[in-house]
Amino acid sequence: MVSATFRFYEELNDFLPAERRRQAFTCGCARAATVKHMIEALGVPHTEVELVLVNGESVDFARLLHDGDRVAVYPRFEALDISPLLKVRDHPLRELRFIADAHLGGLASLLRMCGFDTLYDNHFEDSQIAALAAEQHRIVLSRDRELLKRRIVTHGCYVHALKPALQLRELFERLDLAGSARPFSLCLHCNLPLHEVAAEQARPRLPPRVAVLYSRFLGCDACQRIYWEGSHWRSMCALLAPLLDSWPPD
User: How many other CB atoms are found less than 10 A from the CB of residue 37?
Assistant: First the structure.
């Protein structure tokens, strides 16, 4: 049997049992096992991995493991440009677009609030999520490791936090989302762009008190919802303020 030594770095250790965290360990590998097969057999979804070095050389997921190989596995690098070394994916995604699994509806709404195109339907099967992600070049968001291990899922994030607000903060930090956020540009229900609606057009669709108190409105053509800067808007601004350098705008 082939055996190889593995060392996982930083947050990838969260997927390992305690006795294997933050240290090198040797284990047996199936004959003709690839890097991807063994990383996932050890519990780490391949979508969490940014760089793999085998005996000091950057390799892709299809690299076959040989007896005595030393494998170092790294997560995403936030402060260092390692693009010349990357071999595990053909290319990065140019546009941040997400698809969230059935357990992340709250996070999906918050991402839409921030202006990120996010597909969500609590009736989606895992196979549908994987297929849509591959077809539409979306990042899969999930707390299900098995979904993230599917071969056709090339980009994904395992969400560690349990509450939507903390999940949003986690993604902002891991994916450096602040510079790409466009708050209140998408419908929270439809995930489609919002546009300005004149007050006289909006008022027939508003509660009487709202029509009197507010003058600026956004609307969605698909679901006909109207949005205004009321108490709910102020609560969302308070949630965004720690994530964005200058929000709300003056």
Answer: 17
Measuring CA to CA, which residue among 1, 57, 7 is closest to residue 32? Answer: 1
From CA 229, how far away is CA 130, in angstroms rounded? Answer: 36
Name the 3-class secondary structure at 61.
Answer: coil
Q: Which residues lie below 8 Å from residue 137, measured CB to CB, with a gap of 6+?
A: 93, 95, 97, 155
Alpha carbon distance 227, 233 (integer Å):
9
Structure tokens at 70: 């030393």
According to DSSP H, which parts of the chain are helical? Answer: 35-41, 105-113, 126-136, 145-148, 164-175, 199-202, 208-213, 231-240
User: Per residue in 170-192, pLDDT tens?
Assistant: 999 888 788 889 999 999 999 99
Query: Percent helix, strand and coil across the chain, each rounded to 5?
Result: 35, 20, 45
CA–CA dist 35, 139 (Å, integer): 22
Q: What is the pTM of this model?
A: 0.76
Sheet containing strand 217-219, strands side by side: 195-197, 217-219, 226-228
Q: Which residues lie below 8 Å from residue 146, measured CB to CB, with a gap of 6+?
A: 126
Owner of token pair 């989606």: 124
Query: Is 42 within 8 Å of 6 (Cβ atoms)?
Result: yes
Q: Which residues pair with 218 in a beta bridge?
A: 196, 227
Say yes or no to pLDDT of 86 above 60: no
